[in-house]
Design a protein that fits this description.
Length: 88
Amino acid sequence: MTDDPHGTRTIQLGTPVLALNDEHLGTVRDVHPHYLIVGQEGEHGELEIPVHAIAGIDGGSLRLSVNREALTAVDDNETAHRQLGEQG
């Protein structure tokens, strides 16, 4: 068994992310074994991308099999607590 079952270690921070409809969603900001955090420079409203929504990498961009509407926005308060190691 591996600690990287979905191969997320190969995804580089800063990789552009495109939705199924070619909408640019931002760049990869953080990589976890089961999801990615994607955001746009200088903007709040990061998105949590489950690894199962990744269709592949094409032309240096990470392509998804879903559009923005199918994704979950990251809760800024929850993220702050996680970064500080607190329970929410």
